[in-house]
Amino acid sequence: MVAFASGGRRRSEIAAMRVEQLTVEPSIDVPDGSPLPSLSIHLGRTKTSGADHDGVVYLTGRPVNALNAWLAAARIDKGSIFRKVDRWGNLSNRPLEPSAVNAIVKQRAKMAGLEPGEFSAHGLRSGYLTEAANRGIPLPEAMEQSRHRSVQQASSYYNNATRRTGRAARLIS
Questions:
Q1: Could you tell me if 45 and 38 are in contact, meaning their C-beta atoms sit under 8 angstroms apart?
Q2: Domain contains 6
Q3: How far is the CA of 130 from the CAs of 4, 113, 123, 149, 168, in angstroms?
Q4: Number of domains in the chain
Q5: Which residues of 62-91 are buried (b: 16+ CB within 10 A; e: fewer)?
Q6: Which range of residues forms the domain containing residue 107?
Q7: I want to staple 121 with a disulfide (CB 3.0 to 4.6 A). Which of 46, 94, 102, 145 is the partner?
Q8: For position 43, which CATH number holds?
Q9: Gene3D superfamilies, per this entry (predicted)?
Q10: How is 106-160 classified by DSSP, letter by letter?
Q11: What is the C-alpha separation between 116 and 60, in angstroms, rounded?
């Protein structure tokens, strides 16, 4: 949930995420609803940013609640957020390996009754932009959250999501 909602984070970013990267933000007011909790995640250096660039993405609502519940249940208050769990259920201080993120995605797909071979950790990234397109979120806004630098790459997910049902396909209908 955190990987998807924070813009489709890469496996390496999720595996390396630390409590120290999180900042509690003011709650977001929602008309006719309870305020939504909000966190910022300071990504630091990523695959496409330099060491001097601190990209920030946000989590709002249920993903914040889920993350806080995990941190409380696992008694994590510093260091790696997502950690190895051994076969006896013991939590390590060591972070997950990036490859474990892919294994978890596949395991969760199977638990949901889906075909695990159709899912991967990269699907969190591409799926985020696809869902943003399906919900009509403007590409620049989605790219701010996903931290894609290439409009060409990010727009390919948008084009695939809306091509058949979009207005361009219905010029004459």
A1: no
A2: yes
A3: 11, 22, 10, 16, 17
A4: 1
A5: ebbeebeeeeeeeebeeebbbbeeeeeeee
A6: 2-119
A7: 102
A8: 1.10.443.10
A9: Intergrase catalytic core
A10: HHHHHHTTS-GGG--HHHHHHHHHHHHHHTT--HHHHHHHH----HHHHHHHHHH
A11: 28
In a domain, 157, yes or no: no
The sign of the CA dihedral 56, 82, 35, 134 is positive
Q: 156 vs 24, 100, 118, 151, CA distance in Å?
A: 33, 27, 19, 8
Tokens standing for 80? 């790696």
Rounded CA-CA distance 148/139 in Å is 10
Q: Tally Cβ neighbours within 10 Å of residue 59.
A: 25
Q: Is residue 30 part of a domain?
A: yes
pLDDT at 126: 84
136: its two tokens: 């009509």
Helices 121-134 and 98-111 meet at what angle, rounded to 10? 60
Domain membership of residue 71 (yes or no) is yes
CB 129 within 8 A of CB 8: yes
